[in-house]
Amino acid sequence: MPKLLIVDDEETIRAGLTSMVNRLLPHWEVIGSCEDAEQAWEQVKSCSPDLAIIDIGMTGMSGLEFALRLNKEKPEVNKIMLTGYDKFSYIQTALRAGVTDYLLKPVQRDELVDAFGKVEELLAERDRQSRLRLEKTVSEWTINQKVGSMSLLEQLLDAEGLLDEDVRYGVILRFQCDIDRETADQKTVLPNAYWMAHYKETHKGILKTVDVSLSNVCEMTFVAGRDLTTLMAWLECREQEVDRKSVQLAPIGYGELVDDLRLLPSAFRQAQEMMYRNVQPLEEFIPEEEAERINRLIVAIEMNDLKLVNHLLELWQRDLRQAREHHPVWEFARLFRFVAFFVGLQASRTPSALLTGMNADITRLSGRLLFTGDPVTLLSTIDQFIENVALIKPDSFDERKIISKVKEMMRREYGNPDFSLEQAALFVHLNPTYLSELFKDTTGRKFIDYLTDIRLDEARRLLLDTDLKMYEVCLSVGYTSSKYFSTLFRKKFDVTPTMYRDGPGMETDRA
After folding, report:
1. How far from chain centre, in Å, is Cα 241?
2. DSSP H stretches of helix in 6-108
3. Largest pairwise CA distance in the chain
């Protein structure tokens, strides 16, 4: 409900306008009725109205002066001037003050409604632009981790009061494809926009939902709320809808709820993995030969048998092409099953060096289905995927080389406060959880501990070899909190950074 503030030094005018708005425009809320600009300014700061009706000829600060102040300090507040002076000079000044419209006293009902209509159009466009900006920013950070997008997302959510400590965030993916048994007609359809709208209305824990269409078959919903436990239970209960005439593939995937926006990309990948892992499209129609081949392929990948993997993939590729020619009604389901198989393997963190070498291509393959949903494009991408697997060299999926690349990246990026396991995993095209386990198995240490040691060792060098101030050393090694940096430094070296600089002999290196 949009909010209105009335500012006029005549009580009868304020009361009359309040009555007219309540009667003619009941969808507006009158949040204040002030007799002067000073009172009005306090109301603006505390209540953030969408519109202020301001009398030009008030005593003290004039209405025009107040409008100019709003235009400078609160430009988001729309303004309608109220005047008994039908003079062009006043109108010119009002327009320069960013006024949307002006009304002559006594106010006529139709003129009031028309003026509010103009403001409502501006508010609708503002909301549309705000929604598009939020959708774009959610997508840029959650999916692509675009530089600066997380900070912008924080600003946008903070402006809506959604950055409080008790607010949690989630990512939900929904995929939809309809196949008609009787007409042998297949179509992919966009998931119903705002499909959670009804649920949001009945559950007050959800404060905000943002729907982002990823393709013609896949939609992502970003959720923010203070209590989302009921939402998660509702999602767990949803199943694929199947009716007598058609099979509707509508798998849902969702990640863990997070209270830190930095973890949103990880939640997106969890949702993607769940969607692929849980779907079993038309399992009763999987040919026995294909099922047996899938089992053999799993074993071949686990055994790092590249030759057998290439052979089985060629057979599967042949069947996909034949399915398109002889059984077009099941084409998309089979393509989906191919992608789901490899994403499922990737998500399961199967301990296979060969699978690690395939991860980059699996990521591209799964993304193609999410972001295009077109069978022709998907089949072409599968062909390319199979060709790329055939080009893999046995020594290219050496896990030791992968960890070496990660270590090199750590030494380059230790000064970046946003550097994380997630970014390293993207760099080597691995699941973050799998990379964490692989790193520990290979080095005997946790990723974060290894990174912390690099940062603290560099901090120790800077303390002795440079004249940088303490906060500058802190920032140089990737920490934004001096207190946290000092705590870590003392835990490792038994002295504070200041004590270390003043007396290097006091150092006790436990590294």
Report:
1. 27
2. 11-24, 37-47, 63-73, 88-96
3. 89
Secondary structure (DSSP) of 136-161: HHHHHHHTT--TTHHHHHHHHHHHTT
Q: Do 466 and 480 have their domain in common? A: yes
113 assigned to some structural domain: no
- Does residue 126 lie in a domain region? no
- Identify whether residues 36 and 88 lie together within a single domain: yes
| Domain count within the chain | 4
pLDDT at 253: 84
Reference 213, options 187, 188, 197, 190; nearest CA is 190
CB 97 within 8 A of CB 71: yes
Q: What percent of the residues of the chain are helix, what percent strand, and what percent coil, each to the nearest 5? A: 60, 15, 30
pLDDT tens-digit map of 159-191: 888 888 889 999 988 876 654 444 444 444 444
Distance between CA 436 and CA 422 in Å, rounded? 10
Q: Which residues form the domain of 291? A: 283-397
Residues 329, 330, 333, 336, Cα dihedral to 10°:
-100
Q: What is the DSSP letter of 184?
A: T
Tell me how far apart the alpha carbons of residues 25 and 336 are, in angstroms, rounded to a whole number. Answer: 51
| pLDDT tens per residue, range 316-354 | 888 888 766 655 446 677 787 888 888 878 767 666 778
Q: Output 175 or 79, whichever has higher pLDDT.
A: 79
Q: Name residues whose C-beta falls within 8 Å of residue 134's C-beta, 6 or more positions apart in sequence.
A: 153, 156, 210
Q: Which two tokens stand for residue 93?
A: 């000044």
From the CA atom positions of the chain, what is the Rg in Å? 31
Is residue 231 a contact partner of residue 225, using CB atoms and an 8 Å limit? Answer: yes
The helix (run of H) or strand (run of E) holding residue 320 is helix 306-326
